[in-house]
Amino acid sequence: MNIAPGKIGTIPFDQARLDGLMEEAGIDVLLATSKHDTQYLLGGYKFIFFAAMDAIGHSRYLPVVVYEKGGPDHAAYIGNRMEGAEHQNNPFWTPTLHAACWGTLDAANLAVEHVRKIGKADARIGIEPAFLPSDAYTLIRKTLPDAKLIDATDMLERMRAIKTEAELEKLRIASELITDSMLATIGWAREGTTKTEIIEQLRREETNRGAHFEYCLLTLGSSHNRAASPQAWKQGEVLSIDSGGNYHGYIGDLCRMGILGEPDAELEDLLAEVERVQQAAFSKVKAGILGGDMISFAEGVLKKSKVAPYTDFFAHGMGLITHEAPFLMTNHPVTYEGTYAAKPLEKNMVLSVETTMLHPTRGFIKLEDTLAVTDNGYVMFGDRGRGWNRGGA
Predict the structure, then answer these.
(1) I need a labelling partner for 88 at 20 to 30 A (CA). Which of 46, 209, 268, 366 fits?
(2) What positions does the domain Peptidase M24 occupy (predicted)?
């Protein structure tokens, strides 16, 4: 289904901000091809048929949003043939729709055709190299020989770094649903319940609450192994439950602790040390503070702690994906540069703050929290269950 150019719908992002970032990056036309950026540019839309897997036939699904700087009337969405029905029910804002593709090459051909039609065959075109299949890239490069292809990844990450109020609400709901699900799961689990059973229960809890389950990293007892297994929970043992799920694409990623029985004085003290580092980081979160200053302050508090030899502090940005701008630390643990360490935090950035202890005898003790930056500090999402939660309750 090819829809002839029509009226522009309500643009779901800050057009002036996107135009400014494109100008700064030297990009005239954007070809967004990642699921997260096409979803962002379409106001949260993601085609459910390919939500879990991209492959089909001999190729794969490749959505493309074409956006010309300063020219939303030239915008287009290129999608799968079945997405014409999605448009009939909830029209896309782009004035042009090509719901005509089954693979990468037909999507790339339509993108090239549209770029030519709007007179930008020799323009500076922004692409997402990590999310553009090699066959589609080769076709674009060959059929637009006069165009300059520019990596738009950083520009799009900067665009997504500042969340809208609607995005913040989705992140808040995601965090609340994940927290509720983790606490319910801890309370459900009994002595003898296995890791595999606990993970499956968490999946059900999240799904029943309207979240999309993505993963659960779980430890029991003194083990630091977070993979599913037949290991069973025993009386007096700790449990750490770290889950990532999403609500309408926006990530909830938190970690909470459980205990089967009552925590002894040592466990209370160990979790208090983790909490002290978390609070140190929180105290430096507000708009205008350098991201690196928040990191160094928390690391300094940790360095003075008796648990420092086996404890790690980490913070990262999050939103539609689990690690996105602001990037605050270099290669820790994910391979990217901490390019935002020397930049001030901005209002409506969202951070995941986590302190992880690998205690040699008491096990894996961790808190992970989600914060939205405000002018005067922060707002925490899912701010419950941050102490020892009793299993079998």
Answers:
(1) 209
(2) 169-375
